[in-house]
């Protein structure tokens, strides 16, 4: 919303959600700002037309900027009371001095369900972290009838800081030396079915390990948010924790045969070279009780 994000609660409430936080992880200063993230382990949501539970497999990313503002990205998986699965990805921000975040959700509901109206609505929301309760509170509103006038909020980026990417990486090249190999364990598939972008299928990540130039564990949380529309596109979001306690955020994305990973870790940490993001990925193959994936240098 380049005209500025209006106050969401000027619209009509769609639903309120309480997300349960499994773990909170402080990554540190990355190329984009000061990063921390939350593993969403469950929760509930309720509203006038829709209610249900929040499933595992979601992640909530905060990015604190040098000018006092905060950027937000979140992925959540919802299951309605009548059994429909809904994929929701949000982006938003808190201006410097704001105690709550405003965000815009992008919602994918099954076309064949009674919740298909969520695919075409104009929504905005308010997010607040309750550290004492270990929850994240969301309130989402229909703002189709809300003008873009005051009060509105616009985010100003600090100079000299890279923007965090929203889309999949598109660099390419030939595979070089092996960097690391992961064995990732998975939960059961969660199918949204046919929605506004194609067929969405979600496979939660439950853990695993990795070895190579660096070693450690795959943290539970996140998922492969697959989109099946002609050519299947994988979009896996999850986190590695090295044996020496460093966090590495991973997004491995693209069609089969052309997966490209993007890493994010501390700029002053021992694995800062991964932030250069000149890497390629194998397709996932069967291994280690789940799938095996190998990352390579890009030549």
Q: What's the layout of helices and strands?
A:
Elements: E1 5-6, E2 12-30, E3 33-46, E4 51-54, E5 58-64, E6 70-80, E7 85-94, E8 101-108, E9 123-130, E10 135-142, E11 152-153, E12 175-186, E13 190-195, E14 198-212, E15 216-218, E16 223-228, E17 233-242, E18 247-255, E19 260-264, E20 279-281, E21 285-287, E22 290-298
Identify low-pLDDT runs: none
Specify the CATH architecture of the largest domain. Beta Barrel
Beta-strand level of the residues, as a percent range? Answer: over 45%
What's the main sheet like? Answer: 11 strands, antiparallel
Q: How do the SSEs run, as a string of H and E? A: EEEEEEEEEEEEEEEEEEEEEE
Give an account of the 3D structure.
The mean pLDDT is 93. This protein is globular. The chain has strands at residues 5-6, 12-30, 33-46, 51-54, 58-64, 70-80, 85-94, 101-108, 123-130, 135-142, 152-153, 175-186, 190-195, 198-212, 216-218, 223-228, 233-242, 247-255, 260-264, 279-281, 285-287, 290-298. The strands form three sheets. Strands 12, 13, 14, 15, 16, 17, 18, 19, 20, 21 and 22 form an eleven-stranded antiparallel beta sheet that branches. Strands 2, 3, 4, 5, 6, 7, 8, 9 and 10 form a nine-stranded antiparallel beta sheet that branches. Strands 1-11 form a two-stranded antiparallel sheet. Helices cover 0% and strands 58% of the residues. With 299 residues, the protein is mainly beta. The protein has two domains: 5-150, Porin; 175-298, Porin (Beta Barrel).
């Amino acid at each position: 919303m380049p005209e500025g994000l209006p106050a969401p609660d000027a619209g009509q409430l769609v639903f309120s959600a309480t997300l349960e936080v499994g773990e909170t992880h402080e990554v540190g200063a990355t190329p984009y700002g000061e990063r921390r993230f939350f593993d969403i382990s469950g929760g509930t949501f309720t509203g006038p037309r829709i209610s249900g539970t929040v499933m595992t497999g979601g992640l909530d990313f905060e990015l604190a900027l040098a000018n006092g503002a905060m950027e937000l990205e979140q992925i959540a998986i919802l299951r309605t009371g009548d059994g429909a699965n809904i994929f929701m990805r949000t982006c938003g921000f808190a201006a410097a001095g704001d105690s709550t975040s405003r965000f815009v959700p992008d919602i994918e509901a099954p076309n064949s369900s009674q919740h298909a109206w969520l695919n075409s609505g104009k929504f905005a929301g308010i997010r607040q972290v309750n550290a004492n309760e270990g929850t994240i509170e969301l309130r989402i509103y229909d703002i189709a009838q809300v003008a873009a006038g005051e009060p509105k909020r616009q985010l100003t980026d600090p100079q000299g800081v890279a923007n965090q990417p929203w889309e999949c990486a598109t660099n390419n090249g030939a595979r070089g030396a092996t960097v690391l190999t992961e064995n990732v364990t998975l939960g059961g598939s969660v199918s949204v079915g046919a929605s506004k972008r194609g067929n969405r299928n979600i496979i939660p990540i439950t853990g695993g390990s990795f070895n190579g130039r660096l070693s450690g564990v795959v943290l539970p949380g996140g998922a492969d948010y697959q989109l099946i529309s002609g050519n299947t596109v994988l979009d896996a979001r999850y986190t590695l924790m090295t044996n020496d306690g460093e966090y590495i955020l991973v997004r491995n994305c693209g069609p089969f045969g052309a997966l490209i990973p993007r890493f994010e870790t501390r700029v002053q940490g021992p694995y800062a070279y991964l932030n250069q993001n000149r890497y390629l990925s194998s397709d996932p193959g069967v291994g280690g009780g789940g799938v095996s994936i190998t990352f390579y240098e890009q030549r």
